[in-house]
Specification:
The complex is a heterodimer of chains A (461) and B (99). Chain A is an alpha/beta fold. Chain A has three domains: 187 residues, FAD/NAD(P)-binding domain (3-Layer(bba) Sandwich), CATH 3.50.50.60; 147 residues, FAD/NAD(P)-binding domain, CATH 3.50.50; 68 residues, BFD-like [2Fe-2S]-binding domain (Arc Repressor Mutant, subunit A, Orthogonal Bundle), CATH 1.10.10. Chain A is 38% helix and 23% strand. Chain A has 18 helices and 22 strands. In chain A, helix 1 links the parallel strand 1 and strand 2. Chain A is globular. The termini of chain A are close together. Chain B has a single domain, classed as Ubiquitin-like (UB roll), CATH 3.10.20.440. Helix content of chain B is 7%, strand content 31%. Chain B has one helix and eight strands. In chain B, the strands form two sheets. Chain B has a five-stranded mixed beta sheet, covered by helices on one side. Chain B is globular, with a radius of gyration of 13 Å. The chains are: A alpha/beta (461), B mainly beta (99). Chains A and B meet through strand 8, helix 5 and strand 9 of A and strand 1, helix 1 and strand 5 of B.
């Protein structure tokens, strides 16, 4: 069997994973870090090493902040496996992963899930048409490959939407329009958290500057809108939005959608970690203690994979989790754990001050989380519409797992990643109960599609 | 339309989409290379024969699945291009076999 034992196995080489790896290595733990991307950085600092050289001012300051993390990570002696697909994490801390079609297994004494966030589903009519992508996808194309799309329409809310629009404008790429779906009431709701936000004014100010520069650039900026839908037969022909009760049409070929981000759940849930509904962020978050330790002994979850707090916070949470794992492994004392985690906790607390404000400001309106038009496809993989889900509810469907047997919703290759949150919220709304009662899909291994050959390549299985 | 903003795209290699040769930067992933070449329809859905292409570009949505070197269901946004790679649109035919 291709099994090897490590003190710590880390899944994900974003800010949380990289920080944890470098710190654990410094304190003499043996570390295996598995990452899906071909280079470290996660999504937020994706392709950061590649972009270090060259004329990329449009990427902005926040992207460069990841550089020290990557450098420290590269200096460490951890076993870093890139371009890797983790398809199983057991509660007994065994990780199964595959590289180039060949599977391996590794046993960790401690596991850190640092799989980050993914964009929240934004189910609206026409979101499966060719030409519709997420705003995150636009950013990845730009950062990773220097590829842009002219005259696209950006629809949604959240810091990432402003960031990518700002990067486009700085790089001189024309944007057809930005349709800002931030609910009007959010500005007022966010105000009550502004005292906390002032303690981390830098990040708030930055977002405000992006938005101001977007508007100043003369880009068509549309706000205070209701429903949105995308028209076209195979590919996008136009975006329609409802403003003051009237539908307005905007011809375009490309649309980038965004309604914020949510934790990557499949890895932690498949290992049996407990979760809770987080009303402030309108998503499931993984239950962890102050060190990131989850409900499963020896499995910690750090960074946006537990709850959304952004890249800077993720790096601190990764370090704090690493120190706790080192303590559990008897590599540092409990007083060392406390003393060494202080600076990370201090920086984390500064970041967290701004969170309630950001969460309140960018919480997507329910109409963008639960589709309005019953023809809307909710499960992209199995092509399940809202109408079909409602029909199932009418004949007695009570939860996401049952919905699978009724409709195959959530049973495609993405394994619920693009419909899970919508399904929880649709069922909650239709059944008139709480999210906790409805729950989420039961996530079972393999958590990434694997071929039989990949499975069979695991010796001794 | 997708296009590169880099004046120098570095080393180019040749891949084939439906038999058509495309010269693409060697460090692009398959999805990016095809998008830049103006290709947006990567596959046909099994149920309604809908045309689909990349959505998330980060390995989450599985909408960019395509046939690479004879193998269906390849996640094109996570696979780097390689010289001579043969790519076909993933289609469903009634015999249930790949074309």
């Amino acid at each position: 069997m291709n099994s090897t034992e490590y003190d710590i196995i880390i899944i994900g080489a974003g800010p949380a994973g990289m920080s944890a790896a470098a710190l654990a290595d410094h304190h003499k733990a043996s570390v295996l870090i598995l990452d899906e991307n071909c280079a470290p950085g996660g999504q937020i600092y994706r392709a950061i090493e590649k972009n270090q050289k060259g004329d990329n001012e449009w990427l902005g300051q926040s992207h460069q902040e990841g550089l020290p993390l990557v450098e420290a990570f590269r200096r460490s002696r951890v076993n870093y496996q890139h371009s890797t697909k983790v398809w199983h994490l057991s509660s007994a801390k065994v990780v199964h992963y595959s590289v180039n079609g060949k599977s391996h297994s590794a046993q960790g004494k401690q596991i850190l899930v640092a799989t980050g966030a993914q964009e929240r589903p934004f189910p609206l009519l026409g979101w499966t048409l060719n030409g519709v992508m997420s705003a995150g996808a636009a950013q990845i194309l730009l950062k990773e490959s220097g590829v842009v799309c002219e005259d696209a329409v950006f629809v949604g809310t959240g810091p990432l939407l402003y960031l990518i629009a700002h990067q486009y404008i700085s790089a001189g790429i024309p944007i057809k329009a930005i349709i800002d779906t931030t609910p009007r009431g959010n500005y007022l709701r966010a105000l009550r958290y502004s005292f906390g936000a002032l303690k981390n004014a830098k990040s708030i100010l930055q977002g405000w500057c992006w938005k101001r520069e977007i508007i100043k650039s003369g880009t068509l900026y549309i706000s205070n809108i209701g429903d949105v839908r995308i028209n076209g037969s195979d590919s996008v022909a136009s975006v329609e939005y409802c403003q003051k009760g009237k539908w307005k049409n905007l011809n375009c070929k490309h649309v980038f959608l965004h309604q914020g981000v949510a934790p990557e759940l499949n890895t932690s849930l498949s290992a049996g970690c407990d979760k809770s509904w987080n009303e402030r962020q309108a998503c499931w978050t993984i239950d962890v203690d102050q060190y990131g330790q989850s409900s499963v002994e020896g499995i910690s979850v750090a960074g946006d994979a537990s709850s959304i707090a952004g890249g800077v916070a993720a790096a601190q949470r990764g370090s704090i989790a690493a120190l706790n794992m080192l303590y559990t492994l008897n590599l540092i004392s409990s007083s060392d754990r406390e003393a060494l985690s202080k600076p990370f906790k201090k920086k984390l607390s500064k970041e967290m001050n701004a969170r309630p404000f950001i969460d309140a400001l960018f919480k997507p309106h329910l109409r963008y989380r639960v589709p309005q038009d019953s023809r809307t496809i909710v499960c992209r993989c199995e092509e399940v519409t809202l109408a079909q889900i409602k029909e199932s509810i009418n004949v007695g469907c009570k939860g996401p797992s049952q919905l699978k047997s009724f409709t195959r919703c959530g049973m495609g290759p993405c394994q619920g990643r693009l419909c899970g949150l919508s399904v929880t919220e649709i069922l909650t709304k239709e059944l008139g109960v709480r999210e906790e009662q409805v729950g989420y899909y039961n996530i079972r291994p393999p958590i990434k599609p694997v071929t039989l050959a990949e499975l069979a390549s695991l010796d001794g299985s | 339309m997708f296009r590169s903003i880099n004046n120098n795209q570095g080393e180019l290699i040749t891949i084939y989409f439906e038999g058509r040769a495309l010269n693409v930067p060697k460090d692009h992933n398959v999805a990016t290379a095809l998008l830049e070449a103006g290709i947006s329809s990567f596959r046909q859905t099994a149920l309604n024969n809908e045309s689909r292409g990349p959505y998330c570009m980060m390995g989450v949505c599985f909408d960019c699945l395509i046939n690479i070197n004879g193998l269906d269901n390849q996640q094109s946004c996570t696979i780097q291009v390689s010289d001579g790679m043969k790519i076909r649109r993933q289609v469903i035919n009634t015999s249930g076999k790949n074309e």
